[in-house]
Design a protein that fits this description.
Helix content: 25-40%
Number of strands: 15
Structural class: alpha/beta
Shape: globular
Number of helices: 12
């Protein structure tokens, strides 16, 4: 969306959301899974969580995340907002809730809408807390794999390329947290972040200075490198979760490595999360250079996408990490101004609007060559390697 009244774009929407919450006693999360967990962590931070709803009888007996879990047959209005976090079943659950007299976007809401728009708006307008779901520092563009169609274009980056200097990584964190009060997940990414020689230093710096502002601190790795004992100790100290992307479908040799890494982290009580073996990726079309989209089409691509993947690089805050890294790594002469300078922002409400998809143009330049949400229709093998890696 293009800014028309910067700093006041969502005032009316915010009033509606605050009025809804003024009538509610808290939030019930429908779905005790990955999405529900993420939302739960944020709600718990602000004392807004009430309980889970899930039809898993084992979770009903033992609880989840130390919280009460009830079945969907026990849903009553009770003055709570229901956030539906059931992957792929929103329509079905919505119909069920409407049958018992609950109203959509008043008594219950889709998890994606709640997480990406309602919650950040509520936290700012009610508590003056600037919150975002996800922010990342890309500490290196180098990677141990050479994946075709890499969404960050790390496959074209040479192993002798320079990483982000430690002082810039620290500055990135400093500038970000000078503006933001809380982040749902703060990630150190790459490339392969375990190649970054200053990983321990930046992890300790962020954990010690800003850990209280981070709900979940994580590192995303492709699992090709077993972290050192020293790195694991720092992860334990600052509750850093290790996310492992499972590419064994295309690179079978990694399967044993994943198990070894997973077992080591679990044995040491480091939080670890591994994806299921990924067999397909979206092809965003970044390797094309045809810029023939009309402005209307480009704006539509941006509107439909609403990516949550922010990146901080020094004082520059990029709305889309992929748009930034692909343009940089492929030397595209576009998108160089598609960021907001955090050091220049005086009214933090402008940052909230930026988070919700407002900017000066109403799109990003890289949207010209990105399929955006349409990429879901263009599937390619996940992590297919260039060369002879088996």
């Amino acid at each position: 969306m293009k800014w028309k009244n910067k700093g006041h774009e969502i005032d009316n929407f915010a009033l509606e959301i605050c009025n809804i919450f003024d009538q509610k006693k808290g939030v019930i999360v429908y779905g005790a899974g990955n999405v529900g967990t993420r939302i739960y962590r944020a709600l718990k931070r602000y004392d807004l969580f009430h309980k889970f709803v899930d039809n898993d009888t084992q979770k009903q007996k033992s609880g989840y995340m130390g919280e009460q879990v009830v079945g969907s047959d026990q849903i009553i209005d009770g003055g709570y907002l229901l956030v539906v976090a059931v992957a792929g079943a929103y329509k079905q659950v919505s119909e069920q809730l409407q049958k018992i007299g609950l109203e959509e976007d008043k008594d219950f809401v889709n998890a994606e809408l709640f997480e990406n728009k309602w919650l950040p708006t509520l936290l700012y307008y009610r508590y003056q807390h600037l919150y975002t779901n996800l922010a990342q520092i890309c500490v290196t563009e180098r990677c141990t794999l050479k994946c075709k169609k890499c969404a960050h274009a790390c496959n074209v980056v040479a192993m002798n390329e320079e990483d982000m200097p430690l002082d810039i990584a620290k500055k990135s964190a400093d500038v970000f947290f000078s503006k933001y009060d809380c982040v749902g997940e703060f990630v150190l990414i790459g490339g392969e972040p375990l190649l970054y020689k200053n990983l321990i230093e930046i992890e300790e710096y962020i954990g010690s200075k800003y850990g209280s502002k981070i709900i979940l601190f994580s590192i995303t790795t492709n699992g090709t490198i077993i972290p050192s004992d020293e790195l694991i100790k720092i992860c334990m100290r600052y509750n850093v979760m290790i996310r492992i992307s499972d590419y064994s479908a295309s690179v079978p040799r990694l399967k044993n490595n994943y198990q070894k890494l997973y077992d080591k982290l679990k044995d040491l009580c480091v939080e670890v999360w591994k994806t299921n073996a990924e067999d397909s990726w979206f092809d965003y079309g970044f390797d094309q250079t045809d810029l023939k989209k009309s402005i209307k089409d480009v704006m539509q691509t941006f509107e439909h996408c609403k990516t949550q993947c922010r990146e901080i690089s020094g004082e520059k805050y990029y709305y889309c990490v992929m748009a930034h890294t692909v343009a940089k790594n492929r030397n595209y002469n576009i998108g160089k101004v598609d960021y907001i300078d955090l050091s220049d922002v005086k009214d933090r409400k402008i940052l909230l609007e930026f988070e919700l998809g407002y900017n000066d143009k109403g799109f990003l330049d890289m949207c010209r060559i990105c399929r955006g949400k349409e990429a879901e229709r263009f599937l390619i093998p996940a992590a297919e390697q260039e060369g002879t890696i088996k």
